[in-house]
Amino acid sequence: MMRYFIYLALIQSFVSVSLGSEFNDALCEKEASLFGNGSGKDHIPEECLSGLEKKTNAHTFRKSLDGEFSVHGHKNIISINDPKTKINGQNVISGKSTNLEEVTALTIDEVNKEIAVIDGARDVFFFSSRIIGNVAPLRTVKSQDLEGAVDLVINPKKDQLIVLNPATRQIIIISRLANIFALEGRRKLDILKRIGNVDGQYLTLDPEKQELFVINIKTGSILAWDLGDFSFRKINFALPPSEVKSVRYSLKDESILLEIEKKVIMIPVTKATK
Strand 103-109 relative to strand 114-119: parallel, antiparallel, unpaired? Predict the structure, then answer.
């Protein structure tokens, strides 16, 4: 009988821990939805933000070209780490006005001081990286071509939004200023360019040489697209030994940096001169 009660207590303890972790995640999502709603909910519990980094992946965690500025996204929370800006309180974008439900991927536009977010693998929201809180998106892009999108980059030199959609095996390029809520005739939602038969999981960009990199972790290959004439070249690399935590292009090293646990893999992608 004593063994039975011990066994029952162990089961109850396990169930409580499991339910507790699920409840905490749901609680953080709920607290984030109430953030800045005018009822005094101007603070997200620190445990929600401290655990955010562990919940993000190479799509929902981004660093600037110099690696100093970073952004994390999870569920309906975007957390910004900017050592150059002193902000009193929490540096987050969250709340009902943001329309965020499930951050699928995000990217940093350093030139225009914006953050672009794929939400729920369907919509793209643009936010200022300097105006935080329960704020509405600066612009919203909705299109059937975005259904299933997993990654995006901004090309500030040409004011372009570039989206990777494995569901259609396409890269889609539209105006960075596209906005479904703009006045008729100013929405700029037309597809500027489609690149088909593309396989990969991540995008990154060399903004100076105007090369777009499509990274396929599964095959250990990179397609480098020239954004001028749309010719491409292929780069092979050794497959990483574990899950990739972040992907970014380094101007200084002219390389793609794949960050894995406690290690960074550098893949040189310098374009050969003719």
Answer: antiparallel
